[in-house]
Design goal:
Helix content: over 70%
Radius of gyration: 18 Å
Order of helices and strands: HHHHHHHHHH
Largest sheet: none
CATH superfamily: Tetracycline Repressor, domain 2
Strand content: under 5%
Distance between the termini: 66 Å
Number of domains: 1
Shape: elongated
CATH architecture: Orthogonal Bundle
Structural class: mainly alpha
CATH topology: Tetracycline Repressor, domain 2
CATH class: Mainly Alpha
């Protein structure tokens, strides 16, 4: 009897190879041949699932967004009061452990790639502005949307800073807590 293959699982395995290359060398280094070698499978098998590099890269972006949203959703569900919910959302953007470090490294590889790829840019450019409106009812004051968007922008910069070693994860979280203390005073 022939072996049954989970096609979605195979796509995800290939995507993990894309992510490993992206984390090490950036998305420009991704090729069908490199991904096949990284995944330990034939190039024909990679091409069965993704006929072009662009398809593979776009699927990888979808997956990194899905992973990040799932992680953040779980953290938001576990949070309690408004401050805790906003904190969970903002800290959820930071690479504070190995899993979030890998997700962030891949996401920022896509952000860098978006500078020269208009299709990727169209997807990632709106991501930071999607979170603030979902949290705006949690914050009071003169302009809660501006407060939240500035926190999100700060977290984006801190995430890159943690990835390159400018800040430790603990320092980044402390900066977020400092801003939240002022916001929720």
């Amino acid at each position: 009897m022939p072996k049954r293959v989970d096609h979605e699982e195979r796509r995800r395995e290939i995507t993990l190879a894309v992510w490993r290359i992206a984390m090490a060398e950036g998305l420009a280094a991704v090729t069908l041949r490199r991904v096949a070698a990284e995944a330990g499978i034939s190039m024909n098998l990679v091409q069965y699932y993704f006929t072009t590099k662009d398809q593979m890269i776009h699927y990888g972006l979808q997956r990194v967004i899905e992973v990040a949203v799932a992680r953040m959703s779980a953290e938001l569900e576990a949070a309690g009061d408004s401050r805790a919910v906003v904190r969970a959302a903002i800290v959820g953007m930071l690479p504070v452990d190995e899993e979030s470090r890998q997700t962030s490294a891949v996401y920022y590889a896509y952000m860098l790639y978006a500078i020269t790829d208009p299709q990727i840019r169209a997807v990632v450019s709106g991501i930071p502005r999607q979170l603030a409106p979902q949290l705006v009812h949690r914050v009071s004051g003169a302009d809660p949307l501006v407060e939240l968007e500035s926190l999100i922008a700060m977290a984006s910069g801190l995430a890159v800073g943690v990835l390159v070693g400018s800040y430790t994860p603990e320092e980044a979280v402390a900066f977020v807590d400092h801003r939240l203390d002022r916001l929720f005073a």
